[in-house]
Please model this.
Amino acid sequence: MEQMSRRRIPQPPSWLPVDPYIAALIGTVVLAALLPASGPAAEVAGGASTGAVAFLFFLYGARLSTAEALDGLRHWRLHLTVLACTFVVFPLLGLASAGLVPYVLSPQLQSGFLFLCLVPSTIQSSIAFTSIARGNVPAAICAGSFSSIAGIFLTPLLAAALLGGSGGGFSGDALLKIGVQLLLPFALGQLLRRRIGGFLARHRKVLGLVDRGSILLVVYTAFSEGMVAGIWHQVTPARLGALLAAEAVLLALMLAVTWYGAKRLGFGRADRIAIQFAGSKKSLASGLPMASVLFGAQASLAVLPLMLFHQMQLMVCAVIAKRRAREGQDAVSPEAVPVA
Model:
């Protein structure tokens, strides 16, 4: 089972100097800076973006196998550990970043930094890096699925509780938008999964392009609104450098917490690898659409920390995964057994 999973998982490049998708996102940001949508064009782009977000979450619901995730409940301690890292430890560190305002981060960037800490974990890259590092791939698959399912509900609730009115455009009305644009399409996708799941599986590559194209549209709309509103004049090179430094510290802390914390909890090496990669990463695909709903016109600043963190985690985790693989080459890797 584990060997089959490894063969099917696309392996990222060794050092990932620039992820191609991040390059596309950067190009979209540049396009929005040079040719922002305004007036009637902004209304059309906004409507298309709203529809794209709903369609994205419909696809998430139709693809995500809740049954497969529930089958992994025998690893419940591992999954609880990943969920605790994603939705407890990360948010606590995000709250601590309030101490960086106003000398290191602006209030708007700090809100985006906190939002980054509330987003669920990734699935695909967590699995890929776990496979490269010779970790427990089935556990990583289930942990990523659990995190994605939980994030649909927990991320908006945490944002409402921790960001509140200070989220730069976040308001109570966003909860209604969450229900209509995110939860309802996701639920419909789950209900129709048995009927359309096979079709989606057969056309995975095409739908993957639709996924990414939809997110690029969301990014273009959000950054266009930011340009028209003059929000980007608030981001200086010094602030950007400070944000990168804060995110580097955040990633280092989470990599240490997931690795050494899992050891203290008694997990074996293969499980610790799965916990480290699933518990220290954040999903760009889930976070960007959510931010467009939660932050509105302020979404461009809110998603900047997430976009930067996503590229940083890919580069760092690529190095760590290869290091873990080398460390385990001379050792006999036992099957990961859930700790009772």
